[in-house]
Amino acid sequence: MSKKEWPLWEIFIRGQHGLNHRHVGSLHAPDAEMAINNARDVYTRRKEGVSIWAVKSTDITASAPSEKGPLFDPAESKVYRHPTFFDIPDEVGHM
Amino acid sequence: MYAQMVKSEGMKSLEDMSPEERAFQERIDRGEKIEPKEWMPEGYRKTLIRQIGQHAHSEIVGQLPEGNWITRAPTLERKAILLAKVQDEAGHGLYLYSAAETLGVSRDELMEKLHSGAMKYSSIFNYPTLTWADMGAVGWLVDGAAIMNQVPLQRTSYGPYSRAMIRICKEESFHQRQGYAIMMKMAQGTPEQKEMAQDALNRFWYPALMMFGPSDKDSVHSAQSMAWKIKMNTNDELRQKFVDETVPQAEYLGLTVPDETLKWNDERGHYDFAQPDWEEFFEVLKGNGPCNRERLEARRNAWEQGAWFRDGLTAYAEKSAARRAAALAAE
Amino acid sequence: MTALADISAQETAARPDDPHLADAELKPAFFDWLCRMGDNTLILGHRLSEWCGHGPVLEEDIALANTALDLIGHTQMWLGLAAEVEDKGRSADDLAFLRDAMKFRNAKLVELPNGDMALTLMREFLFDAWHFEMLTALAKSGSPRVAEIAAKALKEVSYHLERTSDLIVRLGDGTEESHHRMQDALDRLWPYTGELFTADAVDEAMAKVGIAPVLADLQAAWERNVNEVLDEATLRKPETRFDVHQGGKQGRHTEHLGYILAEMQFLQRAYPGASW
To answer: Could you tell me which chain B residue has the CA closest to the CA of C272?
Structure first.
């Protein structure tokens, strides 16, 4: 049994053409450097040209309701992650 | 769906509520989102932890029946697609645990509850995947059933849960379609492949119907959860919707849904269909399904055998922080 | 599956001319060498994919799957080109799923069982450090088709190496237990690394026509990199020979490969000719 839990980090990402960093989600990591590495794998699927911030969740002071979370596209090369990669005949209906 | 039989705290009428509770309910009724640090009734918080936690557990236990076939996928492309899909499930688990953590419970605590059996995961993942066609059936039926529930949950009242659901739904649609694409190949393939496809449908049809849980039209728990907008539809509504959408898809494949009573009801505008064996469902929940033991053991092993890895990385982080502090002090 | 077909059609149209593909004399060695590249990534990708759902923590589970996905992607490119060079109507899938162990050309290092995370990460690190040097050289290959694949793969492999180097340092210099596990893994894997640098006639033929580097030339950079990481990780480089276990790339494997293939090729073998 692990004695110490890895702290939670909030991840902010600025995409290649984005202006600002945006919150994309959270993850666990033992320190900030690993939080950034993990964020590359978890939240960018290693898309190039992104800038990542990791902030310890406990260091965030929050006001009341926040903005709606953004969505991130998976890496372009993994085309099968996109639903339209799979040809479903029209007769089958919406899926 | 991935959270079944979630007990909610007792339901109160608006008049019986405290002013705080009433204001809270009115915010929900107006369609406002509740955010982590805002006041919420203890029952709302506890119910959500149970529900989101169960959903998260289902995602990571759900990696196992499909992960089972990654090393046996029949082509390089199928291997990559399946691996990406099972990886997504780990990601979905991660998003959901994070949402639960905003309610004041840690991921490790939730993990421990999964491992001790104090928290459940969806009954569906206690069924084995026996042939490659099961990768099709799981994507098509299991992810299909999950989507029925997850799409409306994007509008749930709790902000972090809603946002996790939006992200998950976006990724989940590829899952169902990849499953159906496998089924199409199999159903149009050799006689053996078609036999595998039919067999997979036979084995997964009723377990998929069970995913929605028993009828809850008279349940007080469900009524409270629906008032809180953490449950958006009754189990029966979702099950009906699933059957109505899935039957034509099975027909297109040329496969037979294993239900002799299945019939379109013109008057209702829905299919009539047979209920699954609810005795079996409760037995599976109690731990007597075909794979309960294997699934939990696999999760426990991963966690216990990974302890040195997590601890090693923690120790390094502490050492390097101390080294940095010492270097700073020496300047 | 239209999307992928479209993409590969576009890629075919844009492909550079490569005279090496038409060189009949070169063909057997070129084919063999491409299988080495593709089989290394196929088998290591397979091993890493075994972790999916069983990782020590969710973030690592996801990261390992990403690496495995990259390697499977590289396999499709290398074995795809191998099939094209061979020109006998076989596909990358035919090569992956219908060759027996003696026709597999991967180094023994990558087929070794996963063991614990220490063994898995150390195996990947030792391979990544070679893979990085190899692809860096291949990106400047005299064969435009090889250079194209190498350039694509190199971006991903640079990250693989960065990630495993970091983890080797952290776990080596972590707890006493993690240190011991990493040292054990290193001691055990070290004798398999020499195969990556030992050239045979195939490697020499590739180097001679300027498709691939002279393997021994990669060794110095590899050692520098590995030493640096091991030092920082407080791990001791083994004094044993590093080239004890060889033969994988000539098709003489460990007992483990047969089991991998039995699993991996099961469907294609049980239902010959079926389409999936």
So the answer is: B190
- For residue B91, is it within any domain? yes
In Å, what is the CA distance from C223 to each residue of C14, C193, C214, C235? 38, 11, 16, 14
Q: Where do the domains of chain C lie, and which CATH numbers do they carry?
A: 22-270 (1.20.1260.10)
Q: pTM for this one?
A: 0.92
Whether the per-residue pLDDT at A69 is higher than 50: the answer is no
Q: Which two tokens stand for residue C102?
A: 């003696």
The pLDDT of residue A75 is 47
Same domain, B72 and B183: yes
**Which residues of B, range 187-226, sit inside 8 Å of C by Cβ?**
189-190, 192-193
Q: Does C170 touch chain B (CB under 8 A)?
A: yes
CB pair distance less than 8 Å for A80 and B314? no
Name chain B contacts of A88, Cβ cutoff 8 Å: 177, 180-181
In a domain, A33, yes or no: yes
Sheet holding A51-56, edge to edge: A22-28, A8-14, A51-56
Give a yes or no: residue B257 inside a domain: yes
A1 within domain boundaries = no
pLDDT digits (tens, 9 = 90+) for B98-112: 999 999 999 999 999
Chains that touch C (3 or more CB pairs under 8 A): A, B
Out of B74, B301, B311, name the one closest to residue C175 (CB): B311
Domain membership of residue A45 (yes or no) is: yes
Q: In this complex, is the C-beta atom of C3 within 8 Å of any C-beta atom belonging to chain A? A: yes
Which of B272, B289, B306 delimits the end of a domain? B289
What single string gives the DSSP state of each residue in B73-140? -SSHHHHHHHHHHHHHHHHHHHHHHHHHHTTT--HHHHHHHHHHTSS---GGGGS---STHHHHHIII
Which CATH number fits the domain that encloses residue A21? 3.10.20.520
Q: Give the HSE-up count for residue A19: Cα atoms under 13 Å, Cβ half-sphere.
A: 0
| pLDDT tens per residue, range C237-251 | 999 999 999 999 999
B292 to chain A, closest Cα gap in Å: 22
Tokens of A64: 């009341």
The answer to whether residue A69 is domain-embedded is no
Report the distance separating Cα B329 and Cα A2, nearest Å.
Answer: 31
B303 and B254 both lie in a single domain: no
Rounded-to-integer distance, Cα C190 and Cα B179, Å: 42
Domain, as residue range, for A26: 8-62
Tell me if C124 sits within 8 A of C193, measured CB to CB.
no
User: Do B320 and B260 fall within a single domain?
Assistant: no
- Of B304, B306, B309, B299, nearest to B60 by C-alpha is B299
Residue B166 is assigned to a structural domain of this protein = yes
Number of domains in chain A: 1
d(CA A40, CA B210) in angstroms, rounded, equals 37
Contacts of B312 in chain C (CB under 8 A): 170-171, 174-175, 177-179
Please name the residue of chain A whose CA is at the shortest distance from the CA of residue B251. A92
Domain ranges, residue B276:
14-289
